């Protein structure tokens, strides 16, 4: 019976939907995390009576037809790249992006990754790095005899050194943006990679045209909304239940048919 297969595709699709929602909820407190949503498409149709075909020798045309669908499939899990809430941390090397742009991170193999997580630290050499020790590009090194470090809204990093009154420039943070942010590949560890779908990155300083600014002592939180995710979870659960009832109904119909043949 076709209904068994059709309903099973619905159950499989909603199962993947629940897995997606669970990942969003699990990352509610992950800095810079961007939630995903599920997008579905219907499967192929079997046309039992094709719409628009002629129905008589006089050339009359069928205004409607008979098409039987075969279910649903998950086709995409795009990320919603909206701005997350920016919260104050008061840590010197925490930096949040307010607006468009990603921090650029150099991975150990030399490739460049991108992140919205600005929870940076200093390595033993005084270089600005991520929580995993990856270098923030372009490389910025803080001297040992530093008293204070300030990061302006445009990404200029300055430090006041011992015995000096005028601040010294240490470097300039840069941001990268993409024409299709949803086309970035999630690598894990709060990092994204460039793909053919994302396009090549456009790089500039914070505050430039089309780019956001940065805030020192702040972090961008996840853009996951708990109420939205719970609502989506309930809807997915009910859709799964209804598809399972279709399976049970189809099974009961097959049992009745089998009993009639005995």
From TrEMBL:
It comes from the Bacteria. PROSITE patterns: FLAGELLA_BB_ROD (PS00588). It is found in: Bacterial flagellum basal body. GO terms for cellular component: bacterial-type flagellum basal body, distal rod. Pfam families: Flg_bb_rod (PF00460), Flg_bbr_C (PF06429), LlgE_F_G_D1 (PF22692). Residues 96-159 form the Flagellar hook protein FlgE/F/G-like D1 domain. Keywords: Bacterial flagellum, Cell projection, Cilium, Flagellum. GO terms for biological process: bacterial-type flagellum-dependent swarming motility. The keyword Disulfide bond does not apply. Coiled coil: none annotated. The basal body constitutes a major portion of the flagellar organelle and consists of four rings (L,P,S, and M) mounted on a central rod. The rod consists of about 26 subunits of FlgG in the distal portion, and FlgB, FlgC and FlgF are thought to build up the proximal portion of the rod with about 6 subunits each. This is Flagellar basal-body rod protein FlgG. The gene is flgG.
